[in-house]
From TrEMBL:
This is diguanylate cyclase. The keyword Repressor does not apply. Residues 214-347 form the GGDEF domain. Its EC number is 2.7.7.65. It comes from Novilysobacter avium. InterPro entries: Diguanylate_Cyclase, GGDEF_dom, MASE2, Nucleotide_cyclase, Rev_trsase/Diguanyl_cyclase. It catalyses: 2 GTP = 3',3'-c-di-GMP + 2 diphosphate.
């Protein structure tokens, strides 16, 4: 059961109800045209009225009273097929309305998204036809006249439009959800920064477009003794520190720099078209900015960061190791910064 079903178990029936009312009524119009031509007996008319006009309301009433409305609705959809099947011999197999009823009722099953429902509906459709032929009798007049054809058009047109609108809405919803999934995949929920994977994709792209007349740099940033912050002030203080640090990074970096969280208390920044001297100045500005952090809820937390800087190396013989080599240089610089006593920038 999904969240929507849990909130309102009748949602499937509510969704289908207006479509069934309109669809069955339009189906009834084309059946009526044939029954009129055939001078059909009263019980055929009675069956048409019951199936096309009363059944949609009865179906909704059935599922609204059921302990499992979705299951009841699946049964209703099968009954729709049985009714459509029953209409075919009643219309003496008139080609156009019979084909439309069979096709559209099967398409409806497909568009509900219920697994294999359309397949299960086929024997039910045949059964409805056989039962109707046995109980109400039948004949064979397959030719479709112009009045019957005209009576079929509303059903055909409105069904096509309804299915297209439904499909359009579905595509929009799926596109929106895909975009949201992509955002979740790319963005770290705690800090709102890029996750490791997307950040590395950007870095790879920067390397792929690198030019000999240009320097690109990266910074690896690690919070000093972060474990102590967690241990002494709690995990909430640690999280608040990471969030504030991300905020300060956004403030210090330029619009075209790319900031990411590599995991835990480690961050990375891509500085495109930046010389080592410029990158050192940016890193130093960030280091000093972090020293200023004071968290209202955790006044005892005074974080600092160590920063390792590396200029993009020349392309190695194996280009797929290029980023790894670059990160290794920055990591070595970060290691030296930690070794120096922390709260410093090393290149
Ligand atoms: N609050 C919080 N803590 C985290 C998160 N992710 C990782 N950590 C913790 O961050 C700490 C990282 O500590 P380390 O990088 O090993 O070491 P450190 O204490 O920062 O020491 P140095 O890096 O040597 O200065 C670990 O205790 C992790 O449990 C997170 O999302 N929130």
């Amino acid at each position: 059961m999904n969240r929507r079903e849990a909130r309102n178990p009748l949602w499937v029936s509510r969704l289908i109800y207006p479509y069934r009312v309109v669809g069955m009524a339009l189906g009834g119009l084309s059946v009526s045209a044939v029954l009129y031509e055939l001078h059909a007996p009263w019980f055929a008319w009675a069956f048409m009225v019951a199936g096309c006009l009363l059944w949609p309301h009865l179906a909704y009433w059935r599922s609204s009273r059921s302990a499992d409305p979705t299951r009841a609705e699946k049964h209703n959809l099968l009954i729709d097929s049985a009714i459509a099947g029953a209409m075919v011999p009643m219309m003496h197999f008139n080609v156009l309305p019979s084909t439309l009823l069979i096709t559209l009722t099967t398409v409806d099953k497909l568009s509900t998204g219920f697994r294999r429902l359309w397949l299960h509906s086929l024997p039910v459709l045949v059964l409805g036809g056989v039962a109707s032929a046995v109980l109400l009798g039948t004949g064979f007049r397959p030719l479709t006249s112009m009045p019957v054809l005209l009576a079929c058009l509303p059903m055909l047109l409105i069904h096509m439009i309804a299915v297209s609108v439904g499909r359009y809405q579905l595509i929009r919803k799926v596109t929106k959800q895909n975009r949201e999934l992509d955002r979740i995949r790319r963005i770290d929920t705690l800090t709102g920064l890029s996750r490791r994977g997307p950040w590395e994709e950007q870095a790879q792209q920067l390397l792929a477009n690198s030019r000999p007349d240009r320097q690109d740099c990266i910074l690896l940033i690690d919070v000093d003794r972060f474990k102590q912050i967690n241990d002494q002030h709690g995990h909430g203080a640690g999280d608040a520190t990471l969030r504030e640090l991300a905020e300060r990074m956004r403030r210090v970096m330029r619009p075209h720099d790319h900031v990411g969280r590599r995991g835990g208390d480690e961050f990375a920044v891509l500085l495109p078209e930046t010389t080592q001297v410029e990158a050192l100045a940016i890193a130093e500005r960030l280091r000093r900015e972090v020293e200023q952090i004071r968290l209202a809820d955790y006044p005892g937390v005074i974080p600092t960061v160590s920063i390792g800087l590396a200029v993009a190396p020349a392309q190695p013989t194996q280009p797929d190791t290029w980023l790894d080599i670059w990160l290794e240089h920055a990591d070595n610089a970060l290691y030296r910064a930690k070794d120096r006593g922390r709260n410093v920038v090393m290149a």
